[in-house]
Amino acid sequence: xxxxxxxxxxxxxxxxxxxxxxxxIQVIGQxxxxxEMVAGxxxxxxxxxxxxxxxxxxxxxxxSLIPLSALSQLGVVLFMFVVGLRLDLSLLRDKARTAVATxxxxxxxxxxxxxxxxxxxHPTLAPPGVGLLPFSLFLAAAMSVTAFPVLARILTDxxxxxxxxxxxxxxxxxxDDVTAWCILxxxxxxxxxxxxxxxxxxxxxxxxxxxxxAYVLLTATVGRRLLAEWLAARSGISMTPYLVSAGVILAxxxxxxxxxxxxxxxxxxxxxxxIIPRHVGNFSLATGLADRVEDVVGAVxxxxxxAITGLRTSIGLIVEPGLWGVFLLILLVAxxxxxGGSAIAARMTGMSWREALSIGTLMNTRGLMELVxxxxxxEIGVISPALFAMMVLMALVTTAMTSPLLQVLLRRQAAExxxx
Length: 420
Prior knowledge:
Na+/H+ antiporter like fold; mainly alpha
Protein backbone atom coordinates (compact mmCIF):
# COMPACT_ATOMS: atom_id res chain seq x y z
CA UNK A 1 0.00 0.00 0.00
CA UNK A 2 1.23 3.50 -0.87
CA UNK A 3 2.16 5.62 2.14
CA UNK A 4 0.85 9.03 1.02
CA UNK A 5 2.65 10.92 3.76
CA UNK A 6 5.96 9.31 2.81
CA UNK A 7 5.43 10.09 -0.87
CA UNK A 8 4.56 13.74 -0.17
CA UNK A 9 7.66 14.14 2.01
CA UNK A 10 9.84 12.62 -0.71
CA UNK A 11 8.39 14.95 -3.35
CA UNK A 12 8.86 17.94 -1.07
CA UNK A 13 12.53 17.16 -0.42
CA UNK A 14 13.23 16.37 -4.08
CA UNK A 15 11.59 19.51 -5.49
CA UNK A 16 13.16 21.86 -2.94
CA UNK A 17 16.62 20.35 -3.53
CA UNK A 18 16.19 20.56 -7.32
CA UNK A 19 15.07 24.19 -7.25
CA UNK A 20 17.86 25.30 -4.91
CA UNK A 21 20.56 23.43 -6.85
CA UNK A 22 19.20 24.68 -10.18
CA UNK A 23 19.33 28.29 -9.00
CA UNK A 24 22.78 27.89 -7.46
CA ILE A 25 24.34 26.36 -10.57
CA GLN A 26 23.13 29.25 -12.74
CA VAL A 27 25.39 31.58 -10.76
CA ILE A 28 28.43 29.93 -12.39
CA GLY A 29 26.89 29.97 -15.87
CA GLN A 30 25.60 26.40 -16.02
CA UNK A 31 22.09 25.41 -17.16
CA UNK A 32 19.68 24.53 -14.30
CA UNK A 33 19.50 20.90 -15.43
CA UNK A 34 23.09 20.43 -14.19
CA UNK A 35 22.05 21.52 -10.71
CA GLU A 36 19.02 19.23 -10.80
CA MET A 37 21.23 16.30 -11.82
CA VAL A 38 23.63 17.08 -8.96
CA ALA A 39 20.72 17.37 -6.52
CA GLY A 40 19.49 13.93 -7.59
CA UNK A 41 22.93 12.42 -6.98
CA UNK A 42 23.22 14.21 -3.62
CA UNK A 43 19.98 12.65 -2.36
CA UNK A 44 21.27 9.13 -3.00
CA UNK A 45 23.95 6.92 -1.47
CA UNK A 46 26.74 8.94 -3.08
CA UNK A 47 26.31 11.88 -0.65
CA UNK A 48 23.33 11.65 1.73
CA UNK A 49 23.91 7.93 2.23
CA UNK A 50 27.56 8.60 3.07
CA UNK A 51 26.89 11.50 5.43
CA UNK A 52 23.80 10.11 7.12
CA UNK A 53 22.68 6.60 6.15
CA UNK A 54 19.80 6.83 8.63
CA UNK A 55 18.45 9.94 6.89
CA UNK A 56 18.59 8.21 3.54
CA UNK A 57 16.75 5.20 4.93
CA UNK A 58 14.15 7.46 6.58
CA UNK A 59 13.48 9.51 3.45
CA UNK A 60 13.78 6.80 0.83
CA UNK A 61 13.16 3.34 2.30
CA UNK A 62 13.31 0.63 -0.35
CA UNK A 63 9.62 -0.26 -0.11
CA SER A 64 8.59 3.37 -0.83
CA LEU A 65 10.46 3.64 -4.14
CA ILE A 66 7.87 1.84 -6.28
CA PRO A 67 5.39 4.78 -6.53
CA LEU A 68 8.28 7.25 -6.82
CA SER A 69 9.80 5.22 -9.65
CA ALA A 70 6.42 5.06 -11.41
CA LEU A 71 6.17 8.86 -11.27
CA SER A 72 9.68 9.17 -12.68
CA GLN A 73 8.86 6.81 -15.55
CA LEU A 74 5.74 8.83 -16.39
CA GLY A 75 7.88 11.97 -16.35
CA VAL A 76 10.42 10.51 -18.78
CA VAL A 77 7.70 9.24 -21.13
CA LEU A 78 6.13 12.71 -21.27
CA PHE A 79 9.57 14.30 -21.58
CA MET A 80 10.29 12.21 -24.67
CA PHE A 81 6.90 13.31 -26.05
CA VAL A 82 8.04 16.93 -25.58
CA VAL A 83 11.36 16.17 -27.29
CA GLY A 84 9.42 14.83 -30.28
CA LEU A 85 7.23 17.93 -30.29
CA ARG A 86 10.28 20.21 -30.24
CA LEU A 87 11.96 18.35 -33.09
CA ASP A 88 11.88 20.56 -36.18
CA LEU A 89 13.38 18.86 -39.23
CA SER A 90 12.78 21.99 -41.33
CA LEU A 91 16.01 23.22 -39.73
CA LEU A 92 17.82 20.93 -42.16
CA ARG A 93 16.69 22.75 -45.30
CA ASP A 94 19.51 25.28 -45.40
CA LYS A 95 22.22 23.30 -43.61
CA ALA A 96 21.40 19.75 -44.65
CA ARG A 97 24.87 18.76 -45.89
CA THR A 98 26.81 20.02 -42.86
CA ALA A 99 24.14 18.98 -40.35
CA VAL A 100 23.74 15.43 -41.66
CA ALA A 101 27.50 14.90 -42.02
CA THR A 102 28.16 16.30 -38.54
CA UNK A 103 25.34 14.30 -36.98
CA UNK A 104 26.31 10.95 -38.42
CA UNK A 105 29.97 11.51 -37.65
CA UNK A 106 28.98 12.41 -34.08
CA UNK A 107 27.14 9.09 -33.84
CA UNK A 108 29.49 6.82 -35.79
CA UNK A 109 32.74 7.87 -34.08
CA UNK A 110 31.62 7.40 -30.44
CA UNK A 111 29.59 4.31 -31.41
CA UNK A 112 32.63 2.56 -32.88
CA UNK A 113 34.94 3.70 -30.08
CA UNK A 114 32.36 2.66 -27.48
CA UNK A 115 32.00 -0.79 -29.05
CA UNK A 116 35.79 -1.26 -29.01
CA UNK A 117 35.97 -0.12 -25.37
CA UNK A 118 33.13 -2.51 -24.47
CA UNK A 119 35.23 -5.54 -25.46
CA UNK A 120 37.72 -4.58 -22.76
CA UNK A 121 35.11 -3.66 -20.12
CA HIS A 122 32.85 -6.67 -20.64
CA PRO A 123 34.72 -9.23 -18.49
CA THR A 124 34.67 -7.03 -15.37
CA LEU A 125 31.78 -4.56 -15.71
CA ALA A 126 29.04 -6.52 -17.49
CA PRO A 127 26.34 -8.11 -15.30
CA PRO A 128 26.54 -11.93 -15.01
CA GLY A 129 25.00 -13.67 -18.01
CA VAL A 130 25.02 -10.61 -20.31
CA GLY A 131 26.68 -11.40 -23.64
CA LEU A 132 29.26 -9.25 -25.38
CA LEU A 133 26.90 -8.26 -28.23
CA PRO A 134 24.12 -6.58 -26.19
CA PHE A 135 26.67 -5.07 -23.79
CA SER A 136 28.75 -3.62 -26.65
CA LEU A 137 25.73 -2.32 -28.54
CA PHE A 138 24.30 -0.63 -25.49
CA LEU A 139 27.56 1.01 -24.40
CA ALA A 140 28.14 2.18 -27.99
CA ALA A 141 24.62 3.65 -28.18
CA ALA A 142 25.00 5.35 -24.80
CA MET A 143 28.24 7.00 -25.97
CA SER A 144 26.48 8.39 -29.05
CA VAL A 145 23.64 10.45 -27.59
CA THR A 146 23.32 14.27 -27.59
CA ALA A 147 21.03 16.16 -25.18
CA PHE A 148 18.86 18.05 -27.68
CA PRO A 149 16.86 20.04 -25.04
CA VAL A 150 19.95 21.10 -23.06
CA LEU A 151 21.77 22.06 -26.26
CA ALA A 152 18.81 24.20 -27.37
CA ARG A 153 18.73 25.90 -23.96
CA ILE A 154 22.47 26.71 -24.07
CA LEU A 155 22.16 28.15 -27.58
CA THR A 156 19.18 30.29 -26.55
CA ASP A 157 20.84 31.57 -23.37
CA UNK A 158 23.97 32.54 -25.28
CA UNK A 159 22.14 34.12 -28.22
CA UNK A 160 23.61 31.59 -30.66
CA UNK A 161 20.40 30.07 -32.00
CA UNK A 162 20.36 32.27 -35.12
CA UNK A 163 24.08 31.99 -35.87
CA UNK A 164 25.73 29.57 -38.28
CA UNK A 165 27.14 27.60 -35.34
CA UNK A 166 23.75 27.43 -33.66
CA UNK A 167 21.79 26.47 -36.76
CA UNK A 168 24.16 23.63 -37.67
CA UNK A 169 24.35 22.37 -34.07
CA UNK A 170 20.58 22.32 -33.53
CA UNK A 171 19.95 20.69 -36.91
CA UNK A 172 22.64 18.08 -36.25
CA UNK A 173 21.15 17.36 -32.84
CA UNK A 174 17.74 16.89 -34.48
CA UNK A 175 19.14 14.22 -36.80
CA ASP A 176 21.02 12.78 -33.81
CA ASP A 177 17.83 12.41 -31.82
CA VAL A 178 15.99 10.45 -34.50
CA THR A 179 18.96 8.23 -35.27
CA ALA A 180 19.99 7.59 -31.66
CA TRP A 181 16.51 6.56 -30.60
CA CYS A 182 16.15 4.24 -33.57
CA ILE A 183 19.49 2.65 -32.61
CA LEU A 184 18.42 2.35 -28.99
CA UNK A 185 15.15 0.68 -29.98
CA UNK A 186 17.14 -1.95 -31.86
CA UNK A 187 19.61 -2.37 -28.99
CA UNK A 188 16.81 -2.93 -26.46
CA UNK A 189 15.26 -5.54 -28.76
CA UNK A 190 18.62 -7.33 -29.07
CA UNK A 191 19.24 -7.18 -25.32
CA UNK A 192 15.81 -8.54 -24.43
CA UNK A 193 16.07 -11.34 -26.99
CA UNK A 194 19.58 -12.28 -25.87
CA UNK A 195 18.35 -12.91 -22.33
CA UNK A 196 16.70 -16.04 -23.71
CA UNK A 197 19.01 -18.18 -25.82
CA UNK A 198 16.22 -20.29 -27.34
CA UNK A 199 15.35 -20.41 -31.03
CA UNK A 200 11.97 -18.93 -30.13
CA UNK A 201 13.75 -15.87 -28.71
CA UNK A 202 15.55 -15.39 -32.02
CA UNK A 203 12.25 -15.54 -33.90
CA UNK A 204 10.73 -13.13 -31.39
CA UNK A 205 13.55 -10.66 -32.04
CA UNK A 206 12.85 -10.56 -35.77
CA UNK A 207 9.11 -10.27 -35.10
CA UNK A 208 9.84 -7.34 -32.78
CA UNK A 209 11.98 -5.57 -35.37
CA UNK A 210 9.53 -6.14 -38.23
CA UNK A 211 6.43 -5.22 -36.22
CA UNK A 212 8.14 -2.12 -34.79
CA UNK A 213 9.25 -1.03 -38.26
CA ALA A 214 5.70 -1.50 -39.53
CA TYR A 215 4.31 0.53 -36.63
CA VAL A 216 6.77 3.39 -37.23
CA LEU A 217 5.97 3.41 -40.97
CA LEU A 218 2.22 3.32 -40.36
CA THR A 219 2.39 6.05 -37.73
CA ALA A 220 4.61 8.33 -39.82
CA THR A 221 2.37 8.07 -42.88
CA VAL A 222 -1.26 7.10 -42.23
CA GLY A 223 -1.23 8.24 -38.60
CA ARG A 224 0.28 11.63 -39.42
CA ARG A 225 -2.20 12.16 -42.28
CA LEU A 226 -5.26 11.22 -40.21
CA LEU A 227 -4.12 13.43 -37.35
CA ALA A 228 -3.57 16.38 -39.69
CA GLU A 229 -7.02 15.93 -41.23
CA TRP A 230 -8.69 15.68 -37.83
CA LEU A 231 -7.00 18.88 -36.66
CA ALA A 232 -7.75 20.73 -39.92
CA ALA A 233 -11.46 20.00 -39.42
CA ARG A 234 -11.41 21.91 -36.12
CA SER A 235 -11.95 25.57 -36.93
CA GLY A 236 -10.45 28.16 -34.60
CA ILE A 237 -8.25 25.63 -32.81
CA SER A 238 -6.67 26.80 -29.55
CA MET A 239 -4.66 25.30 -26.73
CA THR A 240 -7.48 24.02 -24.54
CA PRO A 241 -7.26 21.44 -21.73
CA TYR A 242 -9.09 19.08 -24.10
CA LEU A 243 -6.33 19.41 -26.71
CA VAL A 244 -3.57 18.93 -24.12
CA SER A 245 -5.37 15.85 -22.83
CA ALA A 246 -5.70 14.49 -26.38
CA GLY A 247 -1.96 14.97 -26.94
CA VAL A 248 -1.04 13.17 -23.71
CA ILE A 249 -3.43 10.33 -24.56
CA LEU A 250 -1.74 9.96 -27.95
CA ALA A 251 1.70 9.87 -26.29
CA UNK A 252 0.67 7.28 -23.72
CA UNK A 253 -1.06 5.11 -26.33
CA UNK A 254 1.98 5.14 -28.61
CA UNK A 255 4.27 4.45 -25.63
CA UNK A 256 2.12 1.45 -24.67
CA UNK A 257 2.26 0.06 -28.21
CA UNK A 258 6.05 0.24 -28.50
CA UNK A 259 6.48 -1.23 -25.01
CA UNK A 260 4.18 -4.09 -26.00
CA UNK A 261 6.15 -4.60 -29.21
CA UNK A 262 9.34 -5.04 -27.17
CA UNK A 263 11.38 -1.92 -27.98
CA UNK A 264 10.57 0.64 -25.27
CA UNK A 265 7.78 2.98 -24.20
CA UNK A 266 10.07 6.01 -24.57
CA UNK A 267 10.44 5.47 -28.30
CA UNK A 268 6.67 5.43 -28.75
CA UNK A 269 6.22 8.68 -26.84
CA UNK A 270 8.97 10.32 -28.91
CA UNK A 271 7.36 9.06 -32.12
CA UNK A 272 3.98 10.48 -31.06
CA UNK A 273 5.54 13.91 -30.63
CA UNK A 274 7.15 13.87 -34.07
CA ILE A 275 3.87 13.21 -35.98
CA ILE A 276 1.89 16.07 -34.45
CA PRO A 277 1.71 18.95 -37.00
CA ARG A 278 3.99 21.85 -36.20
CA HIS A 279 1.31 24.33 -37.30
CA VAL A 280 -2.44 24.20 -37.88
CA GLY A 281 -3.24 27.31 -39.89
CA ASN A 282 -1.55 30.15 -38.02
CA PHE A 283 -1.56 28.25 -34.75
CA SER A 284 1.75 26.81 -33.50
CA LEU A 285 0.31 23.53 -32.28
CA ALA A 286 3.46 21.53 -31.44
CA THR A 287 5.16 24.41 -29.61
CA GLY A 288 2.03 25.29 -27.65
CA LEU A 289 1.43 21.68 -26.65
CA ALA A 290 5.10 21.21 -25.70
CA ASP A 291 5.01 24.33 -23.51
CA ARG A 292 1.95 23.11 -21.61
CA VAL A 293 3.23 19.57 -21.02
CA GLU A 294 6.78 20.69 -20.28
CA ASP A 295 5.64 23.00 -17.48
CA VAL A 296 4.47 20.05 -15.37
CA VAL A 297 7.14 17.61 -16.54
CA GLY A 298 10.08 19.96 -15.98
CA ALA A 299 8.84 21.41 -12.69
CA VAL A 300 7.68 18.22 -10.98
CA UNK A 301 8.33 14.91 -12.72
CA UNK A 302 11.89 15.27 -14.05
CA UNK A 303 13.35 16.16 -10.64
CA UNK A 304 11.80 12.89 -9.43
CA UNK A 305 13.59 11.09 -12.28
CA UNK A 306 16.90 12.71 -11.26
CA ALA A 307 16.31 11.58 -7.68
CA ILE A 308 15.59 7.99 -8.73
CA THR A 309 18.77 8.08 -10.85
CA GLY A 310 20.69 9.39 -7.84
CA LEU A 311 19.29 6.64 -5.63
CA ARG A 312 20.53 4.09 -8.17
CA THR A 313 23.97 5.70 -8.39
CA SER A 314 26.62 4.93 -5.81
CA ILE A 315 29.96 6.61 -6.36
CA GLY A 316 31.26 4.28 -3.65
CA LEU A 317 31.20 1.47 -6.21
CA ILE A 318 34.16 3.08 -7.98
CA VAL A 319 36.37 3.87 -4.99
CA GLU A 320 39.24 1.69 -6.20
CA PRO A 321 41.96 3.62 -8.10
CA GLY A 322 41.75 1.17 -10.98
CA LEU A 323 38.05 1.87 -11.45
CA TRP A 324 38.65 5.61 -11.45
CA GLY A 325 41.14 4.94 -14.23
CA VAL A 326 38.38 3.12 -16.11
CA PHE A 327 36.08 6.12 -15.59
CA LEU A 328 38.71 8.49 -17.00
CA LEU A 329 39.08 6.22 -20.02
CA ILE A 330 35.30 6.20 -20.54
CA LEU A 331 35.27 10.00 -20.31
CA LEU A 332 38.16 10.28 -22.78
CA VAL A 333 36.46 7.98 -25.30
CA ALA A 334 33.16 9.83 -24.89
CA UNK A 335 34.69 13.27 -25.50
CA UNK A 336 37.07 12.18 -28.26
CA UNK A 337 34.35 10.34 -30.14
CA UNK A 338 31.56 12.89 -29.83
CA UNK A 339 33.41 16.20 -29.79
CA GLY A 340 36.20 15.05 -32.08
CA GLY A 341 33.97 13.27 -34.60
CA SER A 342 31.58 16.22 -34.83
CA ALA A 343 34.35 18.79 -35.14
CA ILE A 344 36.22 16.92 -37.89
CA ALA A 345 33.02 16.43 -39.90
CA ALA A 346 32.05 20.10 -39.55
CA ARG A 347 35.55 21.18 -40.59
CA MET A 348 35.44 18.91 -43.65
CA THR A 349 32.19 20.56 -44.80
CA GLY A 350 33.82 24.00 -44.92
CA MET A 351 33.54 25.50 -41.43
CA SER A 352 36.50 27.09 -39.64
CA TRP A 353 38.24 25.16 -36.88
CA ARG A 354 36.82 27.53 -34.25
CA GLU A 355 33.28 26.96 -35.52
CA ALA A 356 33.85 23.23 -35.94
CA LEU A 357 35.18 22.84 -32.39
CA SER A 358 32.26 24.91 -31.07
CA ILE A 359 29.81 22.59 -32.81
CA GLY A 360 31.68 19.56 -31.47
CA THR A 361 31.50 21.00 -27.96
CA LEU A 362 27.75 21.49 -28.27
CA MET A 363 27.21 17.98 -29.65
CA ASN A 364 29.17 16.59 -26.70
CA THR A 365 26.38 17.76 -24.36
CA ARG A 366 24.67 14.64 -23.03
CA GLY A 367 22.60 15.74 -20.05
CA LEU A 368 19.19 14.25 -19.39
CA MET A 369 19.09 12.18 -22.60
CA GLU A 370 22.10 10.18 -21.41
CA LEU A 371 20.48 9.52 -18.05
CA VAL A 372 17.32 8.31 -19.78
CA UNK A 373 19.29 5.80 -21.85
CA UNK A 374 21.38 4.67 -18.87
CA UNK A 375 18.28 4.00 -16.79
CA UNK A 376 16.90 1.90 -19.63
CA UNK A 377 20.12 -0.13 -19.63
CA UNK A 378 19.99 -0.66 -15.87
CA GLU A 379 16.31 -1.67 -16.00
CA ILE A 380 16.84 -4.31 -18.66
CA GLY A 381 19.96 -5.56 -16.86
CA VAL A 382 22.53 -4.94 -19.59
CA ILE A 383 24.92 -2.76 -17.52
CA SER A 384 26.15 -3.17 -13.97
CA PRO A 385 25.59 -0.64 -11.14
CA ALA A 386 29.30 0.25 -11.17
CA LEU A 387 29.31 1.01 -14.89
CA PHE A 388 26.02 2.87 -14.46
CA ALA A 389 27.68 5.13 -11.86
CA MET A 390 30.63 5.82 -14.17
CA MET A 391 28.37 6.65 -17.10
CA VAL A 392 26.22 8.97 -14.97
CA LEU A 393 29.36 10.85 -13.94
CA MET A 394 30.44 10.99 -17.60
CA ALA A 395 27.07 12.53 -18.53
CA LEU A 396 27.45 15.12 -15.79
CA VAL A 397 31.02 16.07 -16.75
CA THR A 398 30.40 16.27 -20.51
CA THR A 399 27.35 18.47 -19.96
CA ALA A 400 29.06 20.73 -17.42
CA MET A 401 32.09 21.28 -19.67
CA THR A 402 29.99 22.62 -22.55
CA SER A 403 29.39 26.20 -21.37
CA PRO A 404 32.95 27.03 -20.19
CA LEU A 405 34.57 25.43 -23.22
CA LEU A 406 32.20 27.24 -25.56
CA GLN A 407 33.01 30.51 -23.83
CA VAL A 408 36.73 29.97 -24.40
CA LEU A 409 36.23 29.09 -28.08
CA LEU A 410 34.03 32.11 -28.82
CA ARG A 411 35.75 34.63 -26.57
CA ARG A 412 37.97 36.17 -29.24
CA GLN A 413 35.62 35.93 -32.15
CA ALA A 414 31.87 36.54 -32.24
CA ALA A 415 29.81 33.77 -33.83
CA GLU A 416 29.32 34.29 -37.55
CA UNK A 417 25.74 35.38 -38.38
CA UNK A 418 23.51 32.97 -40.24
CA UNK A 419 23.16 35.38 -43.15
CA UNK A 420 26.92 35.62 -43.64
